[in-house]
Amino acid sequence: MEPVRRIEGTMVPLMRSHVDTDQIIPKQFLKRVERSGFGPFLFHDWAYDHEGELRPDFVFNQPEYQSATVLVTGHNFGSGSSREHAPWALIDWGIRAVIAPSFADIFRNNSLKNGLVPIILSDEEVERIAAVAGDPAAEVVIDVEAGTVTAGGVTVSFFLDPFVKHCLLNGLDDIAITLDHESEISAFEAARPGFKPSLA
Q1: Cα separation of 137 and 65, whole Å?
Q2: Residue whose C-alpha is closest to residue 5's, from 148, 150, 143, 177
Q3: Predicted model pTM
């Protein structure tokens, strides 16, 4: 995971609540084992009509939002199944942070483990940021260490657990955290009696 300290760019507003993971990345696209290649299928059922044509009124299809790095959305984002492909698809499309009043717990945890920053703000704060996001050219700056979002003259604070923040700032996923204890693991394995089963 790459360190995430500061996110700058523009925003895309998708003000819908209870957006589930099957809407973020439909099940028929879950055949890949790599984390890449899911971006083109993000919100597929909303992005395309029944004939496979792009819907020009869907915000992610509008040219002025194509370079957005931050998604602003509604309550309970990422509900439904636990598929880790949902944050993979958002990241692959170019989204680096999601601002919402609330997230489904599993989606939030999956996001943090992949370097996608889920930012919880109050309803009022999300509405203020979403109003700014209505201008495709409006820029946003997210300072992960300071815990602030600044957009259109509006600055709001958000909370991240100190350990979560440490992992984001240093690019530590679960594997990297485990490898931080490599010497202790090696010492434990070296002291393990030889008669016990081994995976070697």
Answers
A1: 8
A2: 143
A3: 0.90
